[in-house]
User: Fold Phage tail protein from Candidatus Avidehalobacter gallistercoris.
Amino acid sequence: MAEQLYCTVVTDVGSAKITQAIQSGDPYMIVNAAVGDGGGAYYMPTPAQTELRREVWRGQIAACEIDQNSPNMLNVKFIIPPDVGGWTVREACLLDIDGGMLAVCNLPDTQKAVYSVGTTGKLTIVMHIVVTDAGVLQFEIHPELESVSREEMNTAIAMHDASPTAHSDLRAQIDTTIQSAIANFYTKDETDDLISDAIYAHDTGADAHGDVRAGVAGLDSRVSALEVIVGGGISTNPFNVTFLSLSGVTVTGVWNKTQGRIEF
Assistant:
């Protein structure tokens, strides 16, 4: 099987109109694009062509840009909507305002199915055209053809966010933050030890619980006084009032001859 090559050629009609535009100074208007199935087979386009072998769709042009690497190359984009299809795209062309063919290209077999809605149902084709003077060409552009619905946008965003390579800068920042947080975490046992050490250091500090320490000191002095009163042995006269004699004093009690006192 012979090798299949793919290219874009400017037609004889297109070349003649470009020359005419250069001489007159009037722009050469390109307004539409079309695709075909090539008559069911691969073929190489020729400058003599004036139409596609079998056209299956015609529509407006979505965008046209000068190639960054070649000022004489134009990148022309057109989009086949999701609700048409059921055929294989093998050829495409650009048409001027009179229906004349500026350029034609062949394409690898591309199936175009019919979808009700959705970004996946669209088929975007970009034709690369090299001309001697791109400045004489003027394209009727419809940028709204590249717009998407809210559903399509949400789907595209979801697919992007799910990609493992999306938001690499944010992923790196989050990973750094997580690693830093993990490095500063403690296990439960480590946390318990730190709390225990902190409590001990506080409780044994000279300035800790000053009010409690003052209250305890007051209690100590009062307990000592009670111990003297209650626990001491009475070997002398404990009374604060003494009498030189008992004349004129009436008391009732038991006389302790050994101690020389009346006990009550």
Summary: Helices lie at 12-24, 150-162, 168-183, 188-203, 210-231. Residues 133 and 194 are 80 Å apart (CA to CA).
